[in-house]
Design brief:
- This protein is α/β, with parallel strands linked by helices.
- The chain folds into 2 domains: about 260 residues, Crotonobetainyl-coa:carnitine coa-transferase, domain 1 (Rossmann fold, 3-Layer(aba) Sandwich); about 70 residues, formyl-coa transferase, domain 3 (2-Layer Sandwich), CATH 3.30.1540.
- The strands form 3 sheets. It has a 7-stranded mixed sheet, sandwiched between helices. A 3-stranded mixed sheet has the order 1-11-12.
- Helix 6 packs across helix 7.
- This is CaiB/BaiF CoA-transferase family protein.
Amino acid sequence: MTESVESGDQHSFTGPLSGLRVIEVGSIGPGPFCAMLLSDLGADVIRLDRASGAGLVGPNADFRTELLHRGRRSVAVDLKNPAGPEVVLSLVDRADVLIEGFRPGVTERLGIGPEVCAQRNPSLIYGRMTGFGQDGPLAQAVGHDINYVALSGALSMIGRKGEPPTPPLSLVGDFGGGGMILALGILGALYERQRSGLGQVIDASMVEGAALLATAFFGFSQTGTWNRERGTNIVDSGAPYYDAYETADGKWLSVGAMEPHFYADLVSLLEIGAQLPDQNDQSEWPAMKKVFADAVRTRTRDQWISAAEGLTPCIAPILEFDEAPHHPHNRARGSFVTVDGLVQPGPAPRFSRTAATVDRRPPIPGEHTAQALASWGLSSTDVDGWLASGALGRSERESPS
C-alpha cells in the first residue's frame, strides 16, 4: 500500500531545504513543477494566485486535485491593483527565492521585476522560466512543450520508423527541461550565495533544457552511431531487444536487453534462439521484431514476469497509472503516497537524514492569504489594508491561523 496521510495546515518542513523561503508567482506547467520540487524538499513555498479569475490549463479544473501545487500555501494577489506589487515586495524582503513564468518583461511591467526585487533584497535568487529564454528572436513568441522540444532538436529523434515525431507527453520540455533545470539552477545559485552573499537571476529556457537532456544523442548523431531515420536505432524502438511488446492478455511488456549476456537470457526466456541472426545485424532487425512480437504474445504479461525469475533478461511490466503504486517494489519503498485521498509519486530522491515529505494537499487560490502572510512576519494592519483595497483576496474556506 502507499503511505497515506491527511494534510493539515502545519507543514512539517523536514527536508534538506527546511528554512528556505520561496515565492512562487502562479503559472502553469514547469514553474509549479519547480516549486513542487523545492516544497517536497522542505522549502516554505507561498504560491501567489490571482485574486480573481484564477484558472487551470489542461484537463484538470479543480485546484484541490492539481498535484503540481501540492505542499504549499496560496495567497491571492491582484498584481494590477496599485498595492499589489507592494504585497509581493514585502514578501521579497523576507524570501530566498522567487519563481516566475511570465513572458520576458511582464514582471518588470508589473513592478516586481528582478531589478526592483534586488533593490529590496540583494540576496534574492530570481528564477525565470520561459520557453525560449529572456532574449533572442523568439523571446516573445508563444508556445507550449511540443514547440520547445521541437526547436531543441530532441523531438525529431522520438518516434517509430515511418511515423511522425511523437510528443513525449510534457516530460521533456515542461518538466525535465523546464522545471527540473530551473530547480537545479536555483540550488546552484543558493550554493554560490554562501560565498558571495548575493543573489542572481536564473534564465531557464525549455528549449535549452530539452536540448541539454538530449546531449548524448547530439553526440551520437555526429559520430556515425545514430541513424537520422527515427525508429531505426537501439533505444528509439529500432532494436528488437529494446521495445514494448503486447502480451496475450492485451497488456504490454518492456524489453531492454542490450548487453550480450542479458540478451542471451532474453532469447532463452522467449525460446527463440534458433530463429535469430546476430543480435546487432540491423538489416535483420525488422524480421527479428516480428519473431519477438510473436513470442511475447504467447503468454500474459504477469506470466512472463514469473517465468523470468532467476534470469536477467531486462524485462519489466508496463504498468498503468493505477497499477504502478501497487507494484510490490514500489510498495516496499513507499514510492507513492496518498494525501487527502489522492495517490501521487512521493518526493525523490531519498535523503538519509532529512527526509522529504508531502503533507499538504494542493490549495484553493487564496486559501491561506492571511495566515501565510502572518507566518512570514507581515503585519495584520498591512494585510487588513490590502484586503480592504482589493490587492489581496481570500478563499471562503481560508484555513484558520
